[in-house]
Design goal:
Length: 242
């Protein structure tokens, strides 16, 4: 089915059109290959997948490309077995993608939506020559702060916040604000939550995260950053919480 859909997309691309190809779910393509491989009596590889997994995935993914006459852009849903990103199926798929948005159960459990994990999510566009120095540097500082918080979570769970150094306490506080600032009310969820959806310009998003990592918002409670749009909204919300 996947190869048939891709062949149709290639035909329209060669006719000079720009094609948007949705694949839901690419794991089904892998699973079909696993079942066929078992029927053919092939020796399974790691975790029971077919030994030709990488070849089959490459045969599909490398055909999703642009030509002088048209283009194919693909958006793919990727099922991650047992939430293990190192599983051969998603790992093989991710190697072909230009960008990945990884949804996290742990972040969803905190009530933060969209539940995107900024540490596991990647993009080849994250380059200072593409997005600019300001955007790139801000992104890396945010990731570094979140990574430090991730490293400290086990210590916090065992010993508590009081055992952390002042610098680590500050990093944890900023990371928790960043986590909540990454939440965003959806327009499609407004009828259920009663909260209007927010659309924030890129420059305002960058400026907001810059202020958090620079320490300009250290005096604000972390609850003020939950489900807001711009950093100004967080500052106004903080006034109602005091």
């Amino acid at each position: 089915v996947a190869l048939t859909g891709l062949t149709m997309a290639e035909k329209f691309r060669d006719e000079g059109r720009d094609i948007l190809l949705f694949i839901d779910n690419i794991y089904r393509y892998t699973l079909a290959g696993t079942e066929v491989s078992a029927l053919l009596g092939r020796m399974p590889s790691a975790v029971g997948y077919q030994p030709t997994l990488a070849e089959e995935m490459g045969r599909l993914q490398e055909r999703i490309t642009s030509t002088k006459t048209g283009s194919i852009t693909s958006i793919q849903a990727v099922y991650v077995p047992a939430d293990d990103l190192t599983d051969p199926s998603p790992a093989t798929t991710f190697g072909h993608l230009d960008a990945t948005v990884v949804l996290s159960r742990d972040i969803a459990a905190l009530g933060i939506y969209p539940a995107v994990d900024p540490l596991d999510s990647t993009s080849r566009q994250l380059d200072p020559h593409v997005i600019g120095e300001e955007h790139y540097n801000t992104t890396r500082r945010v990731q570094a702060t979140l990574q430090r918080y991730k490293e400290l979570r086990d210590i916090i769970a065992i010993l508590g916040m009081d055992e952390l150094s002042p610098d680590d306490k500050l990093a944890v506080a900023r990371a928790r604000k960043i986590q909540r600032f990454l939440s965003q009310p959806f327009n499609v969820a407004e009828v259920f939550t009663g909260t209007p959806g927010k659309i924030v310009a890129l420059k305002d998003t960058i400026r907001g995260f810059q202020m958090i990592v620079d320490g300009e918002c250290d005096h604000l409670p972390e609850q003020a950053f939950y489900m807001v749009g711009t950093i100004e909204e967080a500052i106004e919300k903080a006034k109602t919480l005091q």
